[in-house]
Amino acid sequence: TVRVAYGKINDNDQVNGYILVLQDITQIRRLENIRKDFVANVSHELKTPITSIKGFVETLREGVDDEATRNHFYDIIEMETQRLIELVEDILTLSFLENEESGREGVEDRIHPGVVLREMIQMASKLAREKDIRIESQIQSDLPEIPFKEEYFRQMCLNLLDNAVKYSPPASKVWVTLKREEKYLKLIIADQGMGIPEEAKERIFERFYRVEKGRGRKEGGTGLGLAIVKHIVQSQGATITVDSEPGKGSTFTVTIEIVRY
Ligand code: ADP
């Protein structure tokens, strides 16, 4: 797409030149479209729980005699409210990450990745225990500090661990490995879950993309977890890849450069 603009160059009412400007706005259009899609998606995602909450409140106001039914409705309202909170939090995180100056010069924090990862595994273990899933970790002991924003590292680990548990069957295992490979640090999170089809491997990092309609939403996900991870990884100069065999499991690998020049 090319935008055309032109004008006359005047000097004391005398036209002594013309100016023609051609500007390639393909990229601008593309970004505008992404933004429009995002706004439409956000509106839809917010509307679903709000409509549900409104409906159940109205029903309760009309009076529900049975106590068990009443409690069930309260549970739904609470769940939908929690969903709204998580959605708004994720949207704010994403918009914060987008506004942040990205690039390596922005990286100032240095962290001990093993220490932070262990904390996050503990947090995720709570959810895992409910499904009888064991998280097994192998964290190399003499790892160096790395340049990475601590808050981002936490969020990245938590989102990946949360997904590994969410999309795995009960009583399965999740393996977490943190190790050094020459000048890189590798964080590997592997599960025995439902896996990701080949054609979806790139798309799962898009906002609100879910492999199947319902997968994710049913599990209580916002559809923004991996979009946030991708932004974090990019802003810290790292990379993320996914390997998966549908029906067998998925492996996410984050590669972080230890030494920066
Ligand atoms: P959600 O909040 O839906 O989990 P994410 O952005 O974290 O959103 O993930 C996007 C989609 O990618 C999920 O809805 C799910 O379909 C798929 N996905 C993510 N992680 C895994 C995994 N470990 N195993 C299988 N599918 C996954």
UniProtKB/TrEMBL annotation:
* Subcellular location per the Swiss-Prot or TrEMBL entry: Membrane
Domain Histidine kinase, residue spans:
41-260
The lineage's top-level taxon is Bacteria
Q: Any idea what this protein is called?
A: histidine kinase
